[in-house]
Design brief:
Layout lengths: L12 H49 L5 H29 L8 E4 H11 L1 H6 L3 E6 L4 E4 L1 H17 L6 E9 L2 E8 L21 H7 L5 H11 L3 E6 L5 E8 L3
Parallel strand pairs: 2-4
Antiparallel strand pairs: 1-3, 4-5, 5-7, 6-7
Helix pairs in contact: 1-2, 2-7, 3-5, 5-7
The structure holds adenosine-5'-diphosphate.
EC number: 2.7.13.3
Main location: membrane
Catalytic activity: ATP + protein L-histidine = ADP + protein N-phospho-L-histidine
């Protein structure tokens, strides 16, 4: 990949050809670098829960830890591994060019209401209030299972990062030929320099905290792929200590 043609400076056609070749070569290098980085990340993410499981199994076997305690940790790590593998498979499927996305009319407010209601027990446990202001006439065109997954992921993040006694605002409105969903939380926010990267695979602002919270680091990468397949837009408005607003725009059913 690191081939370069050294006649770029020439102003003639050959010089231009060399320039195009060099640009292409650079972008292929970048793709290759991203691929390697992704593989390294996957290996690391898979190995971590495995090491915990092996370590605790050994500790139980050698009676250095109470069996019940050890088994609970092993179970948690196995669950984590399962989530990770499921997310990886899901992402690989979604990234495939030919992955079919069902397009059917969806009453978006209804879909959002269903997701919010499913979160009610957790939000009550955490003393977080979810306020809704939804335009009931918003009919979009999309894959309802996938869009439910999007809303669930975004709300899950908003809840995960919300301190107790705070409010999450969910609004849905028609804007021209689109539906605009916003989910705003009053959590710690995302530092400005991290905002453009949050939809990258395994990108985490605070590695230690998200691992403890059970996130796989793939949630927003999956969300971004689904939104892309719906020709929608996804935007994060945030800053350190400023809370986070996620704005999702999807085309209305014509
Ligand atoms: P994770 O599984 O780690 O939550 P995501 O892909 O869902 O992975 O999110 C990527 C990162 O973006 C998170 O690790 C977190 O640092 C940041 N993030 C996402 N949503 C929020 C939010 N509402 N408030 C603060 N940080 C967030």
């Amino acid at each position: 990949f690191s081939q370069r043609i050294a006649i770029e400076a020439r102003k003639d056609e050959l010089g231009q050809l060399a320039q195009s070749f060099n640009t292409l070569s650079t972008s292929l290098e970048e793709v290759e670098m991203k691929r390697r980085e992704f593989l390294a990340n996957v290996s690391h993410e898979l190995r971590t829960p495995l090491s915990y499981m092996k370590g605790y199994a050994e500790a139980v076997e050698e009676s250095v830890i109470e069996p019940k305690k050890g088994l609970t940790i092993i179970q948690n790590e196995a669950n984590r591994l399962e989530r990770l593998v499921n997310d990886l498979l899901d992402l690989a499927q979604l990234e495939g060019e030919s992955y079919p996305m069902k397009l059917e009319p969806i009453a978006f407010a209804q879909l959002i209401n269903d997701v919010v209601e499913a979160f009610e027990v957790i939000s009550e446990q955490r003393s977080v209030t979810i306020k809704r202001q939804l335009d009931e006439d918003c009919i979009i065109s999309g894959d309802s299972d996938r869009l439910e997954q999007v809303v669930r992921n975004l709300l899950d993040n908003a809840l995960r990062y919300s301190p107790p006694h705070e409010t999450i605002d969910v609004t849905l409105a028609v804007r021209g030929a689109s539906a605009e969903l916003t989910i705003s939380d009053n959590g710690p926010g995302i530092p400005k320099q991290d905002v453009p990267h949050v939809t990258e695979r395994f990108y985490r602002v605070n590695k230690a905290r998200t691992r403890k919270d059970g996130g796989t680091g793939l949630g927003l990468a999956i969300v971004a792929q689904i939104v892309k397949k719906h020709r929608g837009e996804l935007e994060f408005v945030s800053g350190e200590g400023a809370g986070t607003i996620v704005r999702l725009v999807l085309p209305l059913e014509m």
